[in-house]
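In response to reviewer comment 3 from the previous cycle, which asked for concrete evidence that the modeling workflow produces usable outputs, we include below a single protein chain processed end to end. The sequence was submitted unchanged, and the resulting structure tokens are shown without manual editing.
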Amino acid sequence: MPELSAMAHFVKICGITTLEDAQCVIEAGADALGLILAASPRQLSLDQASDLAAATKGSIVRVGVFRDNTTRFVCEAVDATGVEVAQVHGVLSDELFGELRDRGVAIIKAIPVASDELVTFDEHRVDAVLIDGPRPGSGDPHTWNDVSQRHFQRPLIAAGGLTPGNVAEVLAMTGAWGADVASGVETAPGRKDPRRVRDFVASASAFFEHREESRD
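The workflow returned the following structure tokens.
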């Protein structure tokens, strides 16, 4: 199981649909890429996800993204792709949790900013928590006030409405350990803009570096 908490920070580019975009993300210096296997304009078939995961193995952390998929499908997808991390939107059942742990897969639990889970979810058994907007993948900005008032005991990833221009501000506001973006670096759903990808990774990385230096 990858030790996400051992990483100094986490910059993920989500919704990768082509090998060209995957290579761009790797070259930009991102820590992870997301392969969406749930209903989405960026949804991949299992074969497509497996091909992209195989082509990027050893070069970057690969995250399978799921939302309201059955436990059986998630397990089949994890087994077929070999992703190191499962990002779960919706219910994380005890069954799914156990199956993922048996496979040595790290778990990121995604929580919509406006949901009751923001208050009620017990994050201690997962590896990181991702706070997303009300409509994941929409790119709609949202308020971070409630997030800043909840002190998570697991690494926090900010998502939803992030762009190269605002990622540093959001990271400063939330104290987040990671940043996740899809639409904010695209020309169309599932089509990444290399310049925006580079700018996003550079902006987030510069913020993290400055914050780490300030703590020394």
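The mean pLDDT is 92. We consider this sufficient to address the reviewer's concern, and the full set will be provided in the supplementary archive.
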